[in-house]
Every structure is written in C-alpha cells, then in structure tokens.
Amino acid sequence: MAESTLQAPVPVIVKKKASESALVRVAKYMVVRLLTMAFTVVIGLYLTILFANMGGYVDEIRRGDIRENVQQQVMNDRNLKNLTGDQRNVLIKDRIASEERRLGLDRPFAIRSFAFLKDAITLNLGFAEYMNAANGSRQVKIIVLERLPSTLLLFGTINIVLFFATLFAALSLSRQYGSWLDKLIVGLSPMSAAPSWFYGIFLILIFAAILQWLPFGSMVDSPPPENKIDYALSLAKHLILPSLAIALNQVAYSIYASRTFFLIYSSEDYVDMAKAKGLTSRDIERKYVLRPTLPTNITSFAFLLIGVWSGAPIFEGVFNWPGLGQTQLIAAGLFDTPVIVGTTVIFAYLLAITVFLLDFVYALVDPRVKIGSESTAQ
After folding, report:
1. Which of 2, 55, 70, 367 falls between 20 and 30 A from 163, CA-CA?
2. Which domains does the chain have, with CATH numbers?
3. Cβ-contact 200, 316 below 8 angstroms
C-alpha cells in the first residue's frame, strides 16, 4: 500500500518534465532563429546602404549639388554684389562647409554608413532628400507608410485570391490526370518564365490603347471619386489589368505544381487504406491529400508574396501604381538614399517576420511538423 502511494505521482512528474523540456526546446529554437534572422537583416541593410550610396559616390554628387546651389545663391544675391571676388569665394566656401556639416558630409562615408545602419535598424529613417509625401512631409517614415497600403492592396489581395483559387483548381485537376485540361495546364506552365510586368505591357496595349475598355494605369480615376461606392468601383476597374498580368504569370504554374503534389500524396498507402475504410472522396482529399501538402503550398505562397517585391518597382512603374515599388523606382532615379534604405528596411523586416512565422504555421497545419529539433532537448 505504501509503495503504490509513493509511485502514484511519478507519471505527473515525468509529464511535467517533458512539458518543460518542450518549452526549453522551443525557446532555444526561437532565440537561434531570431539571432540568425537579425544577423541576416543587418548584413542586408548594410549592403543596401553601400549600394544606395555607391560606396560614397552619391556623396560626391550631393557635394556638387551643394556647391552649385551655393554659388548661384551668392551670385544672385543683390546684397552681396559689392563684395570683391576673394570675399565672395570665401563666403561660398564657408556656406558650402556649413551645409556639408549640416548634412554630415564632413565625416567619411565609412563612419556615417554605420550611423545609417543604426538608424535603419531602429526605424529612424530620417528625411528624404528630394521626395515628399502627399501632405508635403519629407519624413521617410511617412512616405513609406503612405505608399505601403497601395502595394499591400495590389499584391496582397491578388495573391491571396490566386492562392486559394489555384489550390482548389489543382485539387480538382488532380482527379482529371491525363485529360485535355490537365495537358493544357502543363503546356501553359512555362508562361511563368516571363515576369508579370511583361504581360502587363501587352494587356495595356490591347485593352487600354486599342480597345479602350480599361484605364492605362494608376489606382483610381483622376480626380478621385468622392462617393465611396464610385471610388470602390473605380479602384476595382483599375485592378483588372494588374490582376490579369499577375494571373498570367502565376496561375498555370501554381496549378501545375500543386496538382503534382496532390497526385504524389494521393498514391500513398494510407490513402488506399482510407478508401478501403469507406471514407468519402471529399474527406480523403481534405484529410489525407490536401493537409499533408499545405506546408509546401504555404511556403510557396509566402515566398511568392515576398518575391513580388523584387519586381514591384517595374510592375508598379508599368501600371503607374502609387505604391512602395514605384516609390523605390523614383528614389533610385533621384539617388534619394534615405528613401531607398527606408523601403528596403520595410522589405527586410517583412521577410524576416514571414520566415519566422512559417515554422509556427507549419506546426498548425501539419501535426507531424515540430518546432525545433527533438535532439536539442535530450
């Protein structure tokens, strides 16, 4: 009797230790992942700062602009016409030096680059040199936050709709393996080799220039409709061509890739056993075919969303879409380093957050996936 009383709490203690071990394993894994991604983000941001400044070459351009502006101001100032040539040159040099000190150009670029890096990491994005927001502000943070919703609306909405549409289309197509529709999708899958902006040019040419059915670009009509319903209809009309361009680039390949995974998993032994048990086709597809492929499909979708940023400047430039991509394109043309760095910072943080959350999404959609390694807890 005494022995059984002493042995009763043992399973509770073992379970508690296992729970603590799992928590420690997850905590260690999260710390390692965060440190790894933080290091990657820092390196990426510093390289962006170097490239955006062309290793300090942009500073020389800015110094040239300062000299030219100061000389014009001094030469055109009527109050300074009585100065001798030497006095005017001394005044010009003093004003140039003062302006360079104000902008920090009196320090070497190698030193200032680390200051830029610190500001970028802490989201202290500073002020743009040439660009400004709609309200006239030159704060990079305001410029970025003003343009970011337009980009998220364009790429986020379209890609989310396409993800679910192609997923269920691929599931349906896996039941029709070898049909003419299946062969058509396989034949059209190489269309993804051409970027979406490439299709956008032809769509604009056909539907806007020749047929004149749809607008050439922009986000809404000009001037924007004041009524909310008219504004929404105008926005939907302007979304048609960009949506078609992205669809032509993604749909066939996404359906083909997902359909291939569905075919692979539908031939597994546990699927045959489920059929033998008398489960319905809908239950088999949902539990034994669709769910095991979700980690792969979610990964493709996540990196598809991230990948659109690489083509966003050109794509938004083609459609004159007032988003972050077009802002980045304009900033690159103007050598507006703070805006270039600011847009890259937002992208870097979005990339890191997405990759970090992917592991947790895997664990939610597939119980076979565990966060962290079992060996680390032993």
Report:
1. 367
2. 143-369 (1.10.3720.10)
3. no
Closest by Cα among 248, 251, 106 to 164: 251
pLDDT of residue 204: 92
State how far Cα 85 lies from the chain centre.
Answer: 55
Instruction: Name the residue with tokens 């040539």.
Output: 85
Tens-digit pLDDT profile for residues 2-46: 444 444 454 555 555 555 565 676 677 777 777 887 788 788 778
The encoded tokens of residue 89 equal 């040159």
Those residues with Cβ within 8 angstroms of residue 378's Cβ, 6 or more apart along the chain or in another chain? none
The set of residues, in sequence order, having a beta carbon less than 8 Å from that of 2 and lying 6+ positions away, is: none
Residue with tokens 């351009």: 61
Largest CA distance in the chain: 113
CA 222 to centroid of chain Cα atoms = 28
Token readout for 126 is 């500073």
pTM higher than the cut 0.90: no
Q: Please, are residues 247 and 165 in contact by the beta-carbon 8 Å criterion?
A: no
